[in-house]
DNA sequence: TGCATGACCACAAAACAAATTCAGTCATAA
DNA sequence: TTATGACTGAATTTGTTTTGTGGTCATGCA
């Protein structure tokens, strides 16, 4: 249990395990596996191989620890978006590449799925708030891109607020709500239906 | 309170109030106003100006009374659909006329809104089941119409199950989910956005 | 001397018990 | 004969005890 005092440098342990990272990793796994409420600080300490008090040298409260992890997830999403969006390409090109990358990220999806389940089943305020934050980040991104695409005359002139909301709801419907009564859809099915509704329209035009 | 003994004919009271109708009306108003759980049989009896025992001469249980009202609502929806759908007209013509009529029906919407709120807030099994029934009736209708429209080459060849699901989710998003964070949309805004996504597509085509 | 630690505490949330509500019955009265 | 509302007990709600958990801090090890 006393694995500290490796070589030290600028206050951080080198050559021995980074305790903060250990805690973050343990907490991430626990939050994704059990949700916010069912994750106890004792459990996190145990998984991280760290005394409980140690957690509180890095994080003031359970909620702050959670926020840090959540912001990590949100940052990662923003990073993905920034990496994939290239304004020399078309709106739909960018959209589908972002979608592709986003659909790959199991680890993030696991946390978010668990949190949305927790919202439905117990209504934990922290998980509710977390989902709201994630939703508003995504909506803000979509809305910004829609405005840009309208300015470029790539999209029809529409209300970006309503349209981004609908696009998001469509994504949620395809990736999680559909699964409540049916076999999950493949990545390609999801993309194909988003394309159908957004790009082409359902109607056969003359 | 003793308003019976009117003229009788084939076992029904004539010239005095129809007690069954009174009960149904009272129960309808109460279910729409307070939901399933918060509606008590004593209350229904009071509103209907009828002794509680009388209700049980017409309906075996509270649940059966509720089912009868729900099936009334569902029948009315089916009637509206049958009245508005004309297979000589296009899929979208029919869709928008049905949408128009459906959006008019305050009384049905009130019951369904109350029930879906009850599902969220308390999770009453009866209201959950009711919403499921309504959903599956609507989905079945949309799916049937989509199959027909595909056969007529009015719609692209797509999966009717997934597409009807998405259309329904879109409708719910626009008519109720949007209202949680924004001012409600007008009927025309709702129709215009459904048209945008389904008929035209968002993209500006060359 | 400094820092990780886990026993410890206060308090929030289960678990349980007591009180109340309400669906459904039935003896009564009109 | 039939509508009725007082009545019953199962199910829910409310109030109380017990348990579990977030957060602290005196201790001991390096």
Would you write up a description of this structure?
The first copy, chain A, is mostly helical and 206 residues long. Chain A has two domains: 7-58, Homeodomain-like (Arc Repressor Mutant, subunit A, Orthogonal Bundle); 62-200, Tetracycline Repressor, domain 2, CATH 1.10.357.10. Helix content of chain A is 69%, strand content 3%. Chain A has helices spanning 19-34, 41-48, 52-58, 62-84, 91-104, 106-121, 125-151, 160-177, 187-200; strands at 7-9, 12-14. The N and C termini of chain A lie far apart (73 Å). Mean pLDDT of chain A is 86; it is low at 1-16. Chain A binds chain B through residues 92, 153-156, 158-159, 161-163, 165-166, 169-170, 173-174, 177-178, 182, 185, 189, 193, 196-204, and chain B through 92, 153-156, 158-159, 161-163, 165-166, 169-170, 173-174, 177-178, 182, 185, 189, 193, 196-204. Chain A binds a DNA duplex (30 and 30 nucleotides) through helix 2 and helix 3. Chains A, B: GO terms for molecular function: DNA binding.
Question: What order do the helices and strands come in, and which of them pair?
Answer:
The structure is a homodimer of 206-residue chains.
Chain A: E1 7-9, E2 12-14, H1 19-34, H2 41-48, H3 52-58, H4 62-84, H5 91-104, H6 106-121, H7 125-151, H8 160-177, H9 187-200
Antiparallel strand pairs in A: 1-2
Chain A binds a DNA duplex (30 and 30 nucleotides) through helix 2 and helix 3.
């Amino acid at each position: 249990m006393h694995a500290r005092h490796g070589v030290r440098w600028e206050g951080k342990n080198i050559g021995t395990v980074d305790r903060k990272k250990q805690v973050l990793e343990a907490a991430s796994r626990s939050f994704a596996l059990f949700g916010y409420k069912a994750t106890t600080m004792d459990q996190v300490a145990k998984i991280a191989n760290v005394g409980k008090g140690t957690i509180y040298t890095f994080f003031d409260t359970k909620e702050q620890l959670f926020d840090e992890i959540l912001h990590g997830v949100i940052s990662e999403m923003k990073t993905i978006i920034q990496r994939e969006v290239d304004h020399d390409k078309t709106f739909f090109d960018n959209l589908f590449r972002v979608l592709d990358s986003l659909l790959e990220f199991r680890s993030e999806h696991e946390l978010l799925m668990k949190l949305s389940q927790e919202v439905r089943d117990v209504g934990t305020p922290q998980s509710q708030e977390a989902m709201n934050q994630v939703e508003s980040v995504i909506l803000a991104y979509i809305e910004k891109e829609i405005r840009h695409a309208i300015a470029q005359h790539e999209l029809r002139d529409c209300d970006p607020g309503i349209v981004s909301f609908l696009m998001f709801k469509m994504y949620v419907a395809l990736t999680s709500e559909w699964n409540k009564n049916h076999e999950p859809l493949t990545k390609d099915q999801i993309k194909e239906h988003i394309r159908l509704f957004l790009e082409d329209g359902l109607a056969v035009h003359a």
